[in-house]
Amino acid sequence: MKGLILFFIRPIFIVLYAGAAWYYLEEQLTTQIAEQVTPMDAQISAKEGELKTLKSKLNTGEAFRAERDKKLQELQELAKEFQGITQQLPKQPSVSELLKVIGGLIDRTGLDLLSLKPQPIKRQEVISEIPVQVQVRGNYLKVMSFIDSVAYLKRVMRVDKVTFDTAEFRQTESDIKADLNIVAYFFEGGGG
Fold first, then answer.
1. Nearest Cα to 95, choosing from 77, 74, 118?
2. Same domain, 121 and 170
3. How far apart are CA 5 and CA 35, in angstroms?
4. Is residue 192, in this structure, part of any structural domain at all?
5. Could you give the number of structural domains in the chain?
6. Averaged pLDDT for residues 74-103
7. Tens digit of each residue's pLDDT (9 = 90 or more) over 123-135
8. Same domain, 19 and 66
9. Which neighbouring-strand residues pair with 133?
10. Domain boundary among 54, 88, 122
11. Final residue before a domain boundary, out of 32, 60, 88
12. Which one of 66, 122, 157, 187 is CB 3.0 to 4.6 Å from 89, fit for a cystine?
């Protein structure tokens, strides 16, 4: 009977011993895994933070790129527009040609020319100005027609200032004297 008890007790001890060993090994493995996983969790969190930062930078970079492309497109359109305008401007300051153009307009509108005085050229970096003081006599409608004609010339000019002789304006309804400052432009960078 002692042999029979030993026969049944040995497997029970073996199972208990194996269970205890398994429990011990599982506890050791769980502890080791937990010790390895905890720093990995911290690394994962750090990498997720880096990923969010990089995504934010990428979105910022894409927004910057889109804004840059938009501004570049606008700049190209402005460059084309500037080139078109500079095509309308003479490349050299030709005061004699300018005076001929203004004199021709005065004749066409039926005004009497009292004086035509070119002023010193105002040189600037890209587009320079040639101011001209003009004094004419005629009725109000003719003066306004002259101003309108200046605005529609191919050459870029503007009437900067208009002054009417108010004493004459009140006394007579036919002819009045008008002083005008006309500014004509030319392209200072004419070589390129």
1. 118
2. yes
3. 44
4. no
5. 2
6. 82
7. 887 788 889 999 9
8. yes
9. 117, 181
10. 88
11. 88
12. 187
